[in-house]
């Protein structure tokens, strides 16, 4: 990877809050220009702390961050000018009008007024018709769009989306993904945090997993999804029945409670197992499929010493 | 300097004041008018001249200071507390602006608002009385300086306050008593010597005394000393704000 391709470089960043907890433990990460990186992790893993440090909201206890060649401390103006931040909570002034809010953000970042740009941007976010509405009059989904509009008002090169779809309905979530895709096509680098695997799967190029303040792994989405996408089929057979040898090739494992567990990733292999079960005349009393939870995967990854 | 950001913050704060202009202008005017009626006309008519002017005239500088101090502290503290309260401060902290630029924007707007209120009160007073100002330029300079210095103080309170109760606490429990005991309604020389000494520890005394000098040409305390004290208070406020931003006190983890 050529150095000029790196737009954000996090090196050994750690954070211990004054009241005790260690939120981040020596996180290092490089992000390529124009990519979408999803930071996946359970609540309290340190995702928001990492983003907050990069954006200047939290001071790191150790480590350094370089944004497009600018250190976030010694050259904070240039570093911050490149960044747009969409926070997790809806944090807006309730009596402000949408267009005024966007203009404020643009001016605050030192960019000259450009109403044509703001109109294009608000239109793309379906907010132009609401430009004269006070924020408090908008629906929850619209307020989130205003947050995005404010973050984009100064034409940032990197956009941070902290849990952009937490608590929003399916339709709005799809809209958000479309917005992200559109931004990427305009060359904006996007880093989003989420605790939905589906979200990472839908829009990210790479996925980073944070757990307990550590960046457990960063991997291309495709390969990670093959690992994360593993599912299990639990079979309960008729009393006293055992698996016939014909099914041995499927490699089922027997659990302590007498059920059989079959691990699979592709739908085709499941169909083959079911066909073999039917052909062998095995009585299946119960059948249950389950996706391993994100928690299970974290536990496994952490246990394996973050080998990836 | 990111002057565009300073202007943006300033304009944003002034716009907020415009939305509530009636209450921010009419309420001080009514309050002041009440003071003139009660202290100036009703009680004042029974009081002999103080420092060579009628009592109603004598209290004008003190009344202006009383209102301006409370307004400056309230405006500035609310200005920075509100984004903290609704959470929108994240944007200020992640923007390419220095602490000084944030302070200039917020304090500048709060000072402007209080200056306007102070001027409106002077206009109201001139409706009731015939005001002669001995040093008009200094009168407006002092008004402006007071607005800025106490807006700085209010800014500190806004960052310090964790809730609305704390926000109200300082203006109510500190500013108002200091102004009342700072010679707004009497001359320091009217006090017994022991209380005069105590009074000199009240910073507002210097402010009101100097301001009264701009009107009547007479002051309770020496002018250079008073100006030095005001300068000292401003320096202390600036240092505290600088420390607050440096350490991230109650704004940055």
UniProtKB/TrEMBL annotation, chain A:
<keyword id="KW-0067">ATP-binding</keyword>
<keyword id="KW-0547">Nucleotide-binding</keyword>
<dbReference type="Pfam" id="PF13732">
    <property type="entry name" value="DrrA1-3_C"/>
</dbReference>
<dbReference type="InterPro" id="IPR025302">
    <property type="entry name" value="DrrA1/2-like_C"/>
</dbReference>
<dbReference type="InterPro" id="IPR027417">
    <property type="entry name" value="P-loop_NTPase"/>
</dbReference>
<dbReference type="InterPro" id="IPR050763">
    <property type="entry name" value="ABC_transporter_ATP-binding"/>
</dbReference>
<dbReference type="InterPro" id="IPR003593">
    <property type="entry name" value="AAA+_ATPase"/>
</dbReference>
<dbReference type="GO" id="GO:0016887">
    <property type="term" value="F:ATP hydrolysis activity"/>
</dbReference>
<keyword id="KW-0813">Transport</keyword>
<feature type="domain" description="ABC transporter">
    <location>
        <begin position="8"/>
        <end position="237"/>
    </location>
</feature>
<dbReference type="GO" id="GO:0005524">
    <property type="term" value="F:ATP binding"/>
</dbReference>
<dbReference type="Pfam" id="PF00005">
    <property type="entry name" value="ABC_tran"/>
</dbReference>
<comment type="similarity">
    <text>Belongs to the ABC transporter superfamily.</text>
</comment>
<protein>
    <submittedName>
        <fullName>ABC transporter ATP-binding protein</fullName>
    </submittedName>
</protein>
<dbReference type="InterPro" id="IPR003439">
    <property type="entry name" value="ABC_transporter-like_ATP-bd"/>
</dbReference>
<dbReference type="InterPro" id="IPR017871">
    <property type="entry name" value="ABC_transporter-like_CS"/>
</dbReference>
UniProtKB/TrEMBL annotation, chain B:
<dbReference type="Pfam" id="PF01061">
    <property type="entry name" value="ABC2_membrane"/>
</dbReference>
<keyword id="KW-1133">Transmembrane helix</keyword>
<dbReference type="GO" id="GO:0140359">
    <property type="term" value="F:ABC-type transporter activity"/>
</dbReference>
<dbReference type="InterPro" id="IPR013525">
    <property type="entry name" value="ABC2_TM"/>
</dbReference>
<feature type="transmembrane region" description="Helical">
    <location>
        <begin position="221"/>
        <end position="242"/>
    </location>
</feature>
<feature type="transmembrane region" description="Helical">
    <location>
        <begin position="20"/>
        <end position="43"/>
    </location>
</feature>
<dbReference type="InterPro" id="IPR052522">
    <property type="entry name" value="ABC-2_transport_permease"/>
</dbReference>
<feature type="transmembrane region" description="Helical">
    <location>
        <begin position="55"/>
        <end position="82"/>
    </location>
</feature>
<keyword id="KW-0472">Membrane</keyword>
<feature type="transmembrane region" description="Helical">
    <location>
        <begin position="167"/>
        <end position="186"/>
    </location>
</feature>
<comment type="similarity">
    <text>Belongs to the ABC-2 integral membrane protein family.</text>
</comment>
<keyword id="KW-0812">Transmembrane</keyword>
<dbReference type="InterPro" id="IPR047817">
    <property type="entry name" value="ABC2_TM_bact-type"/>
</dbReference>
<dbReference type="GO" id="GO:0043190">
    <property type="term" value="C:ATP-binding cassette (ABC) transporter complex"/>
</dbReference>
<protein>
    <recommendedName>
        <fullName>Transport permease protein</fullName>
    </recommendedName>
</protein>
<feature type="transmembrane region" description="Helical">
    <location>
        <begin position="140"/>
        <end position="161"/>
    </location>
</feature>
<feature type="domain" description="ABC transmembrane type-2">
    <location>
        <begin position="19"/>
        <end position="248"/>
    </location>
</feature>
<keyword id="KW-1003">Cell membrane</keyword>
<dbReference type="InterPro" id="IPR000412">
    <property type="entry name" value="ABC_2_transport"/>
</dbReference>
<feature type="transmembrane region" description="Helical">
    <location>
        <begin position="102"/>
        <end position="128"/>
    </location>
</feature>
<keyword id="KW-0813">Transport</keyword>
């Amino acid at each position: 990877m050529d150095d000029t391709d790196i737009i954000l470089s996090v090196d050994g960043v750690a954070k211990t809050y004054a009241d005790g907890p260690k939120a981040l433990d020596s996180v290092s990460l490089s992000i390529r220009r124009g990519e979408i990186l999803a930071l996946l992790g359970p609540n309290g893993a340190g995702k928001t702390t990492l983003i907050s440090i990069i954006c200047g909201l939290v001071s790191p206890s150790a480590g350094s961050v370089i944004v497009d060649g600018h250190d976030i401390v010694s050259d904070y103006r240039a570093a911050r000018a490149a960044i747009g931040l969409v926070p997790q909570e809806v944090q807006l002034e309730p009596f402000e009008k949408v267009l005024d809010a966007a203009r404020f953000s643009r001016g605050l970042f030192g960019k000259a007024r450009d109403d044509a740009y703001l109109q294009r941007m608000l239109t793309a976010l379906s907010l132009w018709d609401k430009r004269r509405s006070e924020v408090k009059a908008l629906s929850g989904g619209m307020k989130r769009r205003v947050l995005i509009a404010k973050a984009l008002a100064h034409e940032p090169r990197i956009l941070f989306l902290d849990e952009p779809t937490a608590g929003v309905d399916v339709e709005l979530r799809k809209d958000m993904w479309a917005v992200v895709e559109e931004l990427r096509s305009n060359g904006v680098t996007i880093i989003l945090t989420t605790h939905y695997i589906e979200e990472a799967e839908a829009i990210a190029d790479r996925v980073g997993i944070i757990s307990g303040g550590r960046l457990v792994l960063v991997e291309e989405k495709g390969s990670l999804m093959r690992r994360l996408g593993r599912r299990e089929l639990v079979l309960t057979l008729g009393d006293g029945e055992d698996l016939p040898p014909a099914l041995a090739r499927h490699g089922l494992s027997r659990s302590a409670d007498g059920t059989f567990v079959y691990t699979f990733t592709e739908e085709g292999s499941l169909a083959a197992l079911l066909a073999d079960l039917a052909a062998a005349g095995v009585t299946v009393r119960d059948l249950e499929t389950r996706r391993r939870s994100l928690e299970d995967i974290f536990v496994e990854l952490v246990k394996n010493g973050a080998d990836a | 300097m990111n002057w565009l950001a300073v202007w943006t913050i300033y304009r944003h704060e002034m716009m907020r004041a415009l939305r509530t202009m009636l209450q921010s202008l009419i309420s001080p005017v009514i309050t002041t008018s009440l003071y003139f009626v009660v202290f100036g006309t009703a009680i004042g008519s029974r009081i002999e001249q103080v420092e060579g002017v009628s009592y109603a005239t004598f209290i004008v500088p003190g009344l202006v200071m009383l209102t301006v101090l409370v307004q400056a502290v309230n405006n500035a503290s609310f200005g920075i507390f509100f984004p903290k309260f609704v959470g929108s401060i994240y944007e200020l902290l992640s923007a390419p602006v220095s602490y000084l630029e944030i302070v200039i924007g917020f304090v500048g707007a709060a000072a402007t608002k209080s200056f306007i209120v102070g001027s409106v009160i002077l206009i109201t007073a001139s409706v009731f009385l015939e005001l002669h100002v001995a040093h008009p330029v200094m009168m407006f300079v002092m008004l402006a300086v007071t607005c800025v210095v106490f807006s700085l103080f209010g800014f500190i309170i806004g960052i310090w306050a964790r809730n609305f109760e704390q926000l109200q606490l300082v203006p109510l429990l500190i500013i108002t008593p200091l102004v009342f005991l700072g010679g707004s309604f009497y001359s320091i020389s009217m006090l017994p010597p022991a209380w005069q000494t105590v009074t000199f520890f009240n910073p507002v005394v210097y402010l009101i005394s100097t301001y009264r000098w701009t009107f009547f040409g007479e002051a309770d305390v020496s002018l250079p000393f008073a100006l030095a004290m005001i300068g000292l208070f401003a320096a202390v406020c600036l240092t505290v704000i600088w420390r607050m931003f440096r350490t991230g006190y109650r704004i940055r983890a």
